[in-house]
Specification:
The protein has about 200 residues and is an all-alpha fold. Helices cover about 65% and strands about 0% of the residues. The chain has three domains: about 35 residues, no CATH class; about 80 residues, Alpha Horseshoe (Serine Threonine Protein Phosphatase 5, Tetratricopeptide repeat); about 45 residues, no CATH class. The chain starts with about 45 loop residues before the first helix and ends with a helix.
């Protein structure tokens, strides 16, 4: 399959006047063309292999997109943050931290960059640093349910159950579908019920 794009002035349907460079990406305004094949594995156990391969392909495409954007602009905070997440998923925490820290440096008000840096610090067991980043996220975006959930989990690990409960309940108020926050609250309730005052 071959896809061709025309971002020039000759294309009457070009939404950008004057024309501008458009990159690959998942939005309708991006250059994206995909060929989809629907596949039915012969054996049930092959479905996991197929899903793994598809997930790896998506990750590779996202990494390529981030790398392309960083070649054009080494201070692209979104590309740095996206690449940090992909590196973290691959277990490359040192590289993930370097990219997230640079994203925070070039765009100090980026909620996503601070959240990503918090995740990296949590993975590296640098809990005070992680806590600081998640608190920054909440200052920038008071309705960021995942930051509340992460802080709740941190306080739970520290044994500070009242603070853990406060953050986890806020996470669930903001996002009732947060299964992680619900499970940690369930564990806390089990601890409280097994240790009555």
């Amino acid at each position: 399959m071959r896809f061709t794009y025309d971002n020039s002035t000759h294309n009457l349907r070009n939404p950008n006047s004057p024309p501008k460079t458009v990159f690959y990406g998942p939005q309708a305004k991006d250059e994206m063309a995909q060929l989809f094949l629907q596949v039915l594995p012969a054996r049930k156990e092959e479905l996991a292999v197929l899903k793994n391969a598809a997930d790896e392909k998506v990750k590779a495409n996202l990494a390529k997109l981030a790398a392309d954007r960083l070649r054009k602009n080494p201070n692209d905070a979104k590309a740095l943050t996206d690449l940090s997440l992909l590196l973290l998923m691959d277990g490359k925490t040192a590289e993930a931290r370097a990219h997230a820290m640079k994203a925070v440096q070039v765009k100090p008000d980026s909620v996503d960059a601070h959240y990503q840096l918090g995740l990296v610090f949590r993975m590296q067991n640098k809990i005070p640093n992680a806590q600081r980043e998640f608190e920054t996220v909440i200052k920038l975006d008071p309705k960021h349910s995942k930051a509340y959930g992460n802080l709740g989990f941190i306080y739970f690990q520290k044994g500070n159950l009242p603070e853990a409960r406060r953050y986890l309940e806020t996470a669930l108020q903001l996002n009732p579908d947060d299964d992680v926050a619900r499970k940690v609250l369930g564990r806390m309730n089990a601890i409280s019920n097994s240790n009555p005052e």
